[in-house]
Design a protein that fits this description.
single chain; mainly alpha; about 350 residues
Length: about 350
């Protein structure tokens, strides 16, 4: 057994390129895992700069000077940020407050609607079972309300954190865009000279991650807009709030669709009861998700490496557990990185084996 391990190590881990790549990946993982919380504004700025680098490159290809392209894109980013803060967040906050204010009334209406089921189908469900269901829902909402109260008590610290983010992140984004080449050259100065394998992996993963992040950003905006228009035309309550979270749900492949089905169905049921309008709202949500999964996502993310659904779900669970929301967002790029490393590793081993056979 020991000899088998030695042979495997000698075959696959004797290449210096593999060792260097492995050390870089381990160091990067440890750095983010242990210091990610402290450097979160920097990581957020890196992600935003990554998103904005595409428009900057587009303007440069149209013969815009680098400084002018960066300035225009950065000003557009600031304008978007102000719109989100001054227009979107107050609307979302208002709808959340309205939802909590109307929640007791909605629960009472829902309970009355469900109590009709024992009258219509006495053999399938009883009034006692309906009461047990609502006791369970009330207990869950009570716990959620206590959780929200504890969060509100720490709102001062949260406000300070938000202010810090609003000041630091735009400044960091500007310098990341303006001095990208200088920063990358400075970082590469600490790396070994011979990085053929690492450079191959980086080139492939960089392209894949860029396509994924930009495509996912457009997917969120489009699904949010379509959902908002659909729910508004159906005169569904809390349409902005629901559509906003439906748009964000595309961050979590397969899981987000399932999680958002329940809020959409409950809001529709509490608003219309057993009326066909509630069913049409659920059908509309299902159609939006089908169009996203079968048309929009393949169109926007066509250049991203195809991963098996099992691999995607495992990546979402693992990286989401490690890094929370950011881990969920970058689960597919990180899975793509692992896939690229494994593929490049075995391709290199195969080419080296073929070279040894040719020499023999």
């Amino acid at each position: 057994m020991i000899q088998l391990v030695r042979d495997w190590t000698k075959r696959y881990l004797s290449d210096p390129q593999v060792i260097v790549l492995g050390m870089l990946l381990i160091l990067g993982f440890c750095f983010i895992f242990f210091f990610g919380g402290l450097l979160m504004p920097v990581l957020v700025a890196v992600v935003i700069a990554y998103l904005l680098d595409g428009p900057v490159t587009f303007l440069e290809r149209r013969h815009f000077p680098k400084r002018l392209a960066v300035t225009l894109v950065f000003l557009l980013f600031l304008a978007t940020l102000f719109v989100l803060i001054l227009w979107l967040l107050p609307l979302l906050s208002r709808q959340i407050s309205q939802l909590f204010q109307r929640l007791p009334t909605m629960l009472t209406l829902g309970r009355d609607q469900l109590l009709r089921l024992p009258e219509l189908y006495p053999d399938l469900i009883s009034a006692t079972q309906v009461e047990q269901i609502f006791d369970f829902i009330n207990a869950g909402l009570t716990a959620f309300g206590r959780r929200m109260l504890s969060i509100s008590l720490a709102s001062v610290m949260g406000l300070i954190t938000i202010v810090v983010y609003l000041i630091l992140v735009p400044i960091l984004v500007f310098f990341f865009l303006k001095d990208k080449e200088m920063i990358l050259n400075w970082m590469s100065g600490f790396l070994p000279d011979n990085l053929t394998l690492a450079s191959t992996v980086w080139s492939e993963v960089n392209q894949q991650v860029a396509n994924y992040v930009r495509g996912k950003g457009w997917e969120i905006l489009i699904i949010w807009g379509i959902s908002f228009v659909t729910f508004t035309l159906m005169r569904m309550e809390f349409s902005l709030l629901l559509s906003f979270f439906v748009g964000l749900s595309v961050i979590f492949p397969y899981i987000g669709v399932t999680l958002m089905f329940l809020p959409v169905a409950l809001i529709a049921f509490f608003q219309w009861g057993w009326d066909p309008k509630a069913l049409w709202a659920i059908v509309a949500y299902a159609i939006i998700q089908l169009l996203d999964g079968n048309l929009l996502a393949p169109l926007l993310l066509s250049e991203v490496i195809n991963l098996h659904p099992i691999a995607i779900i495992i990546a979402v669970l693992v990286f989401g557990g490690l890094w929370g929301l950011w881990g969920l967002f970058f689960a597919i790029p990180l899975a793509t990185l692992i896939n690229a490393v494994i593929k490049s590793w075995f391709n290199r081993q195969r080419s080296m084996a073929q070279g040894n056979q040719a020499e023999d």
